[in-house]
Automatic annotation (TrEMBL):
Keywords: Membrane, Transmembrane, Transmembrane helix
Keyword Metal-binding: no
TM annotation in the entry: 46-64, 70-88, 100-120, 132-154
Signal peptide limits: none
Record has Transmembrane as a keyword: yes
Pfam families, A to Z: HXXEE (PF13787)
Taxonomic superkingdom: Bacteria
Protein name: HXXEE domain-containing protein
Length: 159
């Protein structure tokens, strides 16, 4: 299977993950306490829609971009963010609350295995280089995480 196909499978998996969260996470967040800020359904759905569109655009552009390009690293960083998202917050919140956090199942079924497969193949095929990914991956993931509160604020204002 080509790296592009793995990338599209990963993207589809993340879209399913985002759908699961869009349907169930807002209600869950109202009782999540320290594990998640309460977020209204409209706010959350706006944020997850923007992040989903961002992933689709990133995936589309990265599939035709050259190895070592900004888009190749942006895609790899997005993938890393979703792999890390399996653990924090999904798995830790589920364990800590002793209650299922919406998104954990799709994160475990899709994001984790497809994300790791994508990253391993991108590295072994020299689509990305470890020496760059070691800093660009976490930086991209941090930027995506930083976007979330801003998207919640924007989403709140769109009522």
């Amino acid at each position: 299977m080509t790296l592009s196909m793995i990338g599209w499978l990963f993207t589809f998996g993340v879209l399913l993950h985002n759908l699961e969260e869009a349907l169930y996470l807002p209600a869950w967040s109202m009782q999540a306490g320290r594990w998640h800020v309460p977020v209204a359904a409209g706010q959350f759905r706006f944020a997850v829609t923007v992040l989903s569109v961002f992933l689709i655009v990133t995936a589309t552009l990265s599939m035709t971009a050259a190895a070592g390009s900004l888009m190749a690293y942006l895609m790899a960083g997005y993938v890393l963010s979703m792999v890390l998202n399996v653990l924090l917050p999904h798995a830790l919140a589920t364990i800590g609350m002793r209650r299922y956090m919406p998104g954990l199942a799709t994160a475990l079924l899709f994001n984790l295995p497809l994300g790791l497969w994508y990253l391993m193949r991108a590295l072994t095929e020299h689509r990305i280089e470890w020496s760059v990914f070691i800093w660009s991956g976490p930086l991209t993931a941090a930027m995506i995480v930083a976007m979330i509160p801003a998207l919640f604020v924007i989403g709140r204002g769109l009522k």
